[in-house]
Task: inverse folding
């Protein structure tokens, strides 16, 4: 992917090196849409009862009144991420202009160009999302996230969250290397933002409150596959610009194959549980990304009508 020397987006919020994790509260609301990280293939959501949350809030406030910030204590005791953060002890600053940051800024800028053009052709304005770079852990309007969460989009604050150490995991753990595979990850999460702007995510979030877990999982698969299809549309536009190099499309398709629910479950537990799928099988993810890439049309990405 010939990305160097191209426009870079300013819609980056760099929290790497922030000891507070970038948040104001240790308690989140859930509801983000995550990229599989290997620790599980489910979507993020709140798992604490009201009583537990109240108890934790009280404990947090008690320690806070004593001058002890539990968030900083926890952050100080956690293990390191992918090496992009320089600690205060070393006297360094977060390398805001490192190559990985430049790459993410460029990919985000390319998604902005793509979706601004598509929305304008439909007589609408595209609200560009912010992309938050973090290391190890951070806070979003959808809850507290760590590197184990994987990249995700939070519809409540319209932000994409990314620990760039995930790219190393994508290569070493999933076997999906290459810069276009990494770009696919960003484009997929931006695809969720597009769904949010189109009103698809709000309708899904409202509907799943009335669904059984199995039905919510089935609907989640359709949501995720559409985000893959939207990522494919972005891929089509990068191809038309002449940015793609030989083998780039194969990198993205390989990544889509490696993070299918069935493939992940076989690797982590040795068997698959189809009713627990909520991102789609490897075959489905490859097929829907390819459909978006081949067509370049929003109309080709209707994952809600008929079988997927």
Result:
């Amino acid at each position: 992917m010939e990305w160097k020397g191209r426009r870079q987006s300013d819609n980056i919020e760099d929290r790497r090196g922030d000891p507070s994790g970038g948040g104001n509260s240790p308690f989140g609301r859930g509801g983000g849409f995550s990229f599989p990280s290997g620790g599980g293939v489910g979507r993020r959501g709140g798992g604490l009862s009201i009583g537990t949350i109240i108890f934790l809030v009280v404990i947090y406030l008690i320690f806070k009144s004593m001058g002890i910030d539990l968030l900083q204590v926890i952050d100080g005791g956690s293990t390191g991420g992918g090496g992009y953060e320089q600690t205060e002890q070393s006297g360094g600053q977060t390398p805001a202009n490192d190559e990985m940051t430049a790459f993410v800024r460029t990919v985000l800028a390319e998604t902005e160009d793509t979706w601004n053009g598509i929305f304008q052709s439909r007589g609408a304005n595209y609200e560009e999302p912010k992309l938050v770079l973090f290391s190890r852990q951070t806070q979003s309007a959808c809850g507290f996230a760590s590197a184990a969460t994987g990249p995700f989009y939070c519809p409540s604050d319209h932000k994409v969250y990314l620990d760039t150490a995930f790219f190393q995991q994508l290569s070493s753990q999933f076997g999906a290397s290459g810069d276009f595979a990494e770009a696919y990850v960003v484009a997929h999460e931006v695809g969720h933002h597009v769904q949010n702007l189109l009103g698809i995510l709000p309708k899904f979030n409202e509907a799943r409150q009335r669904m059984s877990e199995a039905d919510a999982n089935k609907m989640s698969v359709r949501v995720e596959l559409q985000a893959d299809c939207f990522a494919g549309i972005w891929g089509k536009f990068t191809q038309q610009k002449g940015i793609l190099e030989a083998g780039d499309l194969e990198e993205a398709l390989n990544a889509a194959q490696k993070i299918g629910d069935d493939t992940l479950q076989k690797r982590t537990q040795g068997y698959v549980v189809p009713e627990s799928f909520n991102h789609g099988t490897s075959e489905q993810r490859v097929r829907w990304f390819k459909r978006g890439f081949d067509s370049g049309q929003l109309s080709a990405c209707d994952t809600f009508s008929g079988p997927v």
